[in-house]
Amino acid sequence: MNKKIILVTGGQRSGKSELSEKLALENSDTPVYVATAHVADDEFRERVRIHQNRRGCNWTTIEEEIELSRHNLSGKTAVIDCVTMWVTNVFFKNGEDVKVSLDILKKEFDRFTSNKAVYIFVSNEIGSGGVAPNALTRKFTDLQGWFNQYIASRADEVYLTVSGIPLKIK
Amino acid sequence: MNKKIILVTGGQRSGKSELSEKLALENSDTPVYVATAHVADDEFRERVRIHQNRRGCNWTTIEEEIELSRHNLSGKTAVIDCVTMWVTNVFFKNGEDVKVSLDILKKEFDRFTSNKAVYIFVSNEIGSGGVAPNALTRKFTDLQGWFNQYIASRADEVYLTVSGIPLKIK
Amino acid sequence: MNKKIILVTGGQRSGKSELSEKLALENSDTPVYVATAHVADDEFRERVRIHQNRRGCNWTTIEEEIELSRHNLSGKTAVIDCVTMWVTNVFFKNGEDVKVSLDILKKEFDRFTSNKAVYIFVSNEIGSGGVAPNALTRKFTDLQGWFNQYIASRADEVYLTVSGIPLKIK
């Protein structure tokens, strides 16, 4: 098995997860789902449940909010859903410092993807709605954008989803 | 006349209406304009006026906020402007319930588009600006995104407009 | 040298400036950087500094917040970074009037780009995050969107950047 990195990005409810799961099942009958969300409230738990119901029981789920590289996925096909939650967790754990967080994320990404596996990262486009009114959101938007660029530059394939339609942009 | 469903989506002021009207006039000299907006204030009335002035007097206008299927457009070419307003009206009429609203919208869509006509739906990309601070907006973003995916999956052609440039993505 | 107008648009932190600077250096060893930002606070000054550090010392910088046409760039290759700041400055100088501002911007644009030069405009996609809660932001979104359409219609090339990947859309 060769190593392969795929990035699926797009707006909210644009079909990113569905595409990622489809791509995973084309590669493997028993894919791994890496859930990065910190499940903090009922609204979010409901979103998680909807996603889980769509996936079948042939999926293995790993919950990992920050240190993805603790998991060696050699030979596996994994969907990492999603980068935005991972970035959020690292950002808040590191005093909302963009520079420090970006550095940690890049290193973790490199370590995590060093094994031969198929990695399908799901991320969000969040910077096309105008400048946010508060500085914290602006900092997060910077961090998310820069890290998306980093992943895309290392990815073999990048997809942008629009209204459920995947556009292969790399 | 064969049935044809077209979706034109994009951000605010990206040229969606202009493209839709152009596509309509390529199909018919006497197109129908289905206005879904609930005209609630002067700011909105002004937007309506600008759109109407751009269209000529060869257009027939139907105002319909919710029940589009009441209108049989057999043999016609129609621009439905816009899906976002239609979704808004259904959402608020149904207690801001995403599941109920989505179900109603899908059924109405199927019923409305069951006749042989050219349907050009104008919708909005609203999920690329980061997560909204309030739950109601997040619910609406879910609903809009899922319904856009539904329309796109049934459409023969889908266009994304960016800075006035149409990208044919299906 | 032939006249050439290029528009680079995209979300925040999507790689617009990097692409623009790359395109400029393909055209010229000594490009001009037209900075339109009104540097009002420390957060912004920091962003300016990051951009300046990335560019080398072979760049000439012109600071011009409003009247771009005062500068004759005949024979030069220039990056105008960014349209959104320019629009902001004109908007607030003219009583937040969309119609008046759009008219001024179009005339300034035509005058500024009347000389034989390579003009690379950097702008922002800001209308894909849902409708803003306040009227001023909605007016600005209209103005930015309409002016982006104007520039794109006059441009020889238009690029949309997504996660650092340039998509040539015209």
Please characterize this protein's 3D structure:
The structure is a homotrimer of 170-residue chains. With 170 residues, chain A is of the alpha/beta class. Chain A has helices at residues 16-27, 42-54, 83-93, 98-112, 135-154, and strands at residues 4-10, 32-35, 60-63, 77-81, 118-122, 157-162, 165-168. A seven-stranded mixed β-sheet of chain A has the order 3-2-4-5-1-6-7, sandwiched between helices. The two termini of chain A are 21 Å apart. The model of chain A has no long low-confidence stretch (mean pLDDT 94). The A-B interface holds A 10-15, 43, 124-130, 132, 137, 140-141, 162-165, 167 and B 7, 9, 11, 123, 125-131, 135, 138, 141-142, 144-146, 148-149, 151-153, 158, 160, 169-170.
Number of helices of chain A: 5
State the assembly state of the protein chains.
Answer: homotrimer
Structure class of chain A: alpha/beta
Q: Which protein chains make the most extensive interface, counting residues with beta carbons within 8 Å of the other chain's beta carbons?
A: A-B, 23 and 27 residues
Principal-axis shape of chain A: globular
- H/E element string of chain A? EHEHEEHHEHEE
Which regions of chain A contain 5 or more consecutive residues with pLDDT less than 50? none
Number of strands of chain A: 7
Largest sheet of chain A: 7 strands, mixed
* Rg of chain A: 15 Å
What is the end-to-end distance of chain A?
A: 21 Å
- The proportion of residues in beta strands of chain A is 15-25%
Biggest sheet: strand arrangement of chain A? 3-2-4-5-1-6-7
**What is the percent of helical residues of chain A?**
40-55%
Query: What is the overall pLDDT average of chain A?
Result: 94
